[in-house]
Amino acid sequence: MTPEDEAAYKAKLEEAIRVGYEILKNGGSSLDAVEKTINVMEDSPLFNAGKGAVFTNADSNELDSSIMDGNCLNAGASAGTTNVRNPINLARAIMEKSPHVMLSGKGAEEFAKEQGIQIVDPSYFFTERRYNSLLKIKETEKKLFSLIKILSENKKTIPENPTKIPIDLIKLIFSLLIKKWAKIAAVKGVLAINIAAKLLWTFWIP
Fold this sequence. Notes:
This protein is mainly alpha-helical and 206 residues long. The protein is 54% helix and 9% strand. It has helices spanning 3-25, 30-42, 87-97, 105-114, 128-152, 167-180, 189-203; strands spanning 63-69, 74-81, 102-104.
């Protein structure tokens, strides 16, 4: 992160905190303070919320949000919305104005319209920085799965139980991968073990 980027993040975070502080200072509720504080972050392209949301693998932005009232433990959440400008506002409306705890997708978006919550075109959430990040991740995935294909075609057989391979060796393989392909996408459990097993079986095990 450059000094300029760091300064921009700090300035926006200070703005968000001040918004919440002023609400509390003037007798507003903690829910109001939290909601308005998050609105500042949602409206900024700097954060993974609202305007700065990351892309899905399908090149779309799908937003989630949740809120809870600590006094009564009521909660509200929305998931997978593509056109609600401020998802935290929707989460609060779900908590306070519906019998549900969570709504998702089209149902959540329809409820947002009914409640007068601002709706935007999905293109509103596009930011070049986040899109470029997606392209880099896709390129990394392409390289990774190409490697898996090559290793799968190798004549050596993968052990039936790759989890028996020493974890330190698995960590070593992944540290090498991460160094070679910076910011490698996270790969879940079993697949990660199998990838590491293939590499180890191919290059380390006689």
